[in-house]
């Protein structure tokens, strides 16, 4: 076994690999960019080497720098993680040349599977079922058009070198083919440097089912069952699970056998995934093979009780596979949700900023959190905005779903927009709960998943007000203890005023809804009133924002975090973001950012979310401003037309600057 390995990656996967290496007594070397100097993977590793500036192409993607770091630290092998250089032939070859072990398949297997067309040709030879289509070399537009006509619409045009859901075009009818082909080729050339495409039958309501395979250098190949990754948005996975619902043992064996054949056809060694697209009737076709560890590998680990990184390390050091096919078993059900810094309500726009509060659910035999960040870390614009992978396990799918809902409800993130509430709705949505799965689920269930947000329940405002009052009284208490006149009435937080009644108003805002909570001070509680409802409130607030609430004798647990003029109220599985309005500055911070066309505070324009001249709906994102380490989306105040943007991406803007010239549509 190796004594020291280098991990050519960052984020959660680098941390994940370090964890297993440490357990096996293997020393680890992290590499990092300038932006990651304090990143969690750097903190966890035994050693770390700076490899360049923030931009990945100048750091994590520079083969020579990574090889040099391995040599300088005496690492014997390199784990590439996923993404970055994990499927890069040149990198794999460079490792070989320099006498470093690449923890992955041989370069010939990466090459064979690098092109979707070449892979399909190979699989055809190995007798693996293929999606009907054309994957030959003739790229003449008219020829491809005739192929598409013969396949029958709808068809999918795919970049042979594509990946990550990019470089695909759906064509519904013949007359759209030529234009779609040209646009697909343009994207393929610019994203992958190769405009070769293939044409496939578009499968209606398909499921994405993939098989985990493992090979060793002794000629053994096994499959570790399947994962269902049908729940996607824009062809990117959102929720994954194992085993696949409604999978029969016969079909599992057939898919497993096809995947093992596929791996054998390319002399596969190490962890790999053979992706299939499956019809609702269960018939399946080879889609592609990923020659690395997948993001969603933990669900396989949870149902098999195995550590796939340990297997990778054993295989790479020449050991045979730890188990044979007959020894592998499925136990229970696992689900994974990808927690992202993104805003589902704004087209899943990525969000960046500091994680001012981060409290994941407690880990246990049932709950696992794979992450590359901790509280106070930044989600930077340089890399994938993933916060964590949340993985749960239980004896069956229903119980795993319940675990997932609870774990999501316990997950608290403040500082960046995130998809936790969206994931909760997705997990709870009847179609998902009933395992009515296909890749169109999110689109089809959008009314359920993106509800028109109703008004904030009064209780949420009461909780926010109570937290405010408890925080004040705590602060006043601390202050008094340090003061030379601890008994001064000016330290009291019981609402006492000279010549005034003990009553005041706390103002909050949520979207356009403004809430004035009237507070009266009782001897050991507060009387809170809002919208004609009054409650007696008491509670205890801890320094992490955990709040035990008692509203008229009804007990609740909540978390209230104050950050940048906002109050994040987490209660009963839901997160509400309220703006705390200072009545003396009625323009307010925080809540004023949405809807206006002027900069709510000084900042930098980081993206234009629409085109000049475009006609947009009310609420459509127009421009994104970064200010105070937070993203603020300037949205259309009404349906209308974008006349002009006053600034470009990268420009600094002053407080109150007009950002967009906007013309509301005539009513
Ligand atoms: P990438 O390499 O970009 O991930 P894939 O070939 O793996 O591309 O396809 C990604 C997703 O696109 C699949 O999971 C599936 O949702 C969808 N898809 C791919 N091929 C087809 C097809 N022939 N019919 C319908 N959907 C497809």
User: Which strand-content bin applies to the residues?
Assistant: 25-35%
Name the hetero compounds present: adenosine-5'-diphosphate
- Total beta strands: 38
Name the CATH architecture of the largest domain.
Answer: 2-Layer Sandwich
Low-confidence stretches: 585-595
The CATH homologous superfamily of the largest domain? ATP-grasp fold, B domain
CATH class of the largest domain: Alpha Beta
Count every helix, treating DSSP H or I runs of 4 or more residues as helices: 17
Strand order of the largest sheet: 14-13-10-11-12-15-22-20
Structural class: alpha+beta
Q: What is the molecular shape? A: globular
CATH topology of the largest domain: D-amino Acid Aminotransferase, Chain A, domain 1
Summarize model confidence as the mean pLDDT. Answer: 91
Termini separation? 73 Å
InterPro entries: ATP-grasp (IPR011761), BC-like_N (IPR005481), Biotin_carboxylase_complex (IPR050856), Biotin_carboxylation_dom (IPR011764), Biotin_COase_C (IPR005482), Biotin_lipoyl (IPR000089), CPAse_ATP-bd (IPR005479), MCC_alpha_BT (IPR048429)
Protein name: Acetyl/propionyl/methylcrotonyl-CoA carboxylase subunit alpha
Domain Lipoyl-binding: 587-663
Organism: Pseudothauera rhizosphaerae
């Amino acid at each position: 076994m190796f004594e020291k390995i280098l991990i050519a990656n960052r984020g959660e996967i680098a941390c994940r690999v370090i964890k297993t290496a440490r357990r096996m007594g293997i020393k680890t070397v992290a590499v990092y960019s300038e932006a990651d100097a304090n990143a969690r993977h750097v903190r966890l590793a035994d050693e770390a080497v700076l490899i360049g500036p923030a931009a990945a192409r100048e750091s994590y993607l520079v083969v020579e720098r990574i090889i040099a770091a391995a040599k300088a630290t005496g690492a014997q092998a390199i784990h590439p993680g996923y993404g970055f250089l994990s499927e890069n032939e040149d990198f794999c070859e460079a490792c070989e040349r320099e006498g470093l072990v690449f923890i992955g398949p041989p370069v010939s297997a990466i090459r064979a599977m690098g092109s979707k067309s070449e892979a399909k040709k190979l699989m055809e030879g190995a007798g693996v079922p293929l999606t009907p289509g054309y994957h030959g070399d003739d790229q003449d537009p008219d020829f491809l058009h005739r192929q598409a006509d013969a396949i029958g619409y709808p068809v999918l045009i795919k970049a042979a070198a594509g990946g990550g859901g990019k470089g695909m075009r759906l064509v519904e009818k013949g007359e759209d083919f030529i234009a779609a082909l040209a646009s697909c080729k343009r994207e393929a050339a610019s994203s992958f440097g190769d405009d070769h495409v293939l044409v496939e039958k578009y499968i209606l309501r398909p499921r994405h089912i993939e098989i985990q395979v493992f090979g060793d250098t002794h000629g053994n190949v096994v499959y570790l069952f399947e994962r269902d990754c049908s729940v996607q948005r824009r062809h990117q996975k959102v929720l994954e699970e194992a085993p696949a619902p409604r999978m029969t043992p016969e079909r599992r064996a057939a898919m497993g056998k096809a995947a093992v054949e596929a791996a054998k056809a390319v002399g596969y060694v190490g962890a790999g995934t053979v992706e299939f697209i499956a019809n609702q009737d269960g018939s399946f076709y080879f889609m592609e093979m990923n020659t690395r560890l997948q993001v969603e590998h933990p669900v396989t680990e949870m149902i098999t009780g195995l550590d796939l990184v340990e297997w990778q390390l054993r295989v790479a050091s020449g050991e045979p596979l730890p188990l044979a096919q007959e020894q592998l078993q499925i136990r229970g059900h696992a689900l994974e949700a990808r927690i992202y810094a993104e805003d589902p309500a704004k087209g899943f726009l990525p969000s960046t900023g500091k994680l001012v509060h981060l409290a994941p659910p407690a880990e246990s035999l049932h709950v696992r959190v794979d992450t590359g960040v901790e509280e106070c870390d930044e989600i930077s614009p340089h890399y994938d905005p993933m916060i964590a992978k949340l993985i749960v396990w239980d004896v069956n799918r229903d119980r795993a779903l319940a675990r997932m809902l609870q774990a999501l409800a316990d997950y608290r993130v403040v500082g960046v927009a995130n998809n936790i509430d969206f994931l909760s709705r997705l997990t709870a949505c009847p179609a998902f709960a009933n395992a009515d799965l296909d890749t169109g689920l999110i689109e089809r269930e959008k009314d359920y998943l993106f509800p028109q947000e109703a008004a904030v329940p009064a209780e949420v405002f009461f909780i926010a007000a109570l937290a405010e009052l408890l925080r004040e009284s705590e602060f006043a208490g601390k202050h008094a203890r340090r003061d030379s006149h601890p008994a001064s009435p000016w330290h009291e937080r019981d609402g006492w005023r000279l010549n005034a009644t003990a009553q005041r108003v706390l103002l909050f805002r949520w979207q356009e809804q403004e809430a004035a909570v009237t507070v009266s001070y009782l001897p050991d509680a507060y009387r809170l009133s809002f919208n004609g409802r009054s409650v007696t409130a008491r509670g205890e607030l801890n320094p992490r924002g955990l709040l035990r609430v008692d509203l008229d004798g009804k007990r609740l647990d909540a978390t209230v975090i104050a950050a940048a003029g906002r109050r994040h109220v987490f209660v009963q599985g839901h997160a509400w973001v309220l703006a705390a309005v200072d009545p003396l500055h009625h323009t307010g911070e925080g809540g004023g950012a949405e809807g206006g066309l002027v900069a709510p505070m000084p900042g930098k324009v980081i993206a234009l979310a629409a085109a000049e001249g475009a006609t947009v709906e009310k609420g459509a994102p127009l421009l994104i401003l970064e200010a105070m380490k937070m993203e603020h989306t300037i949205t259309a105040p009404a349906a209308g037309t974008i006349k002009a943007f006053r600034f470009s991406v990268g420009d600094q803007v002053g407080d109150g600057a007009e950002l967009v010239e906007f013309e509301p549509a005539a009513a």
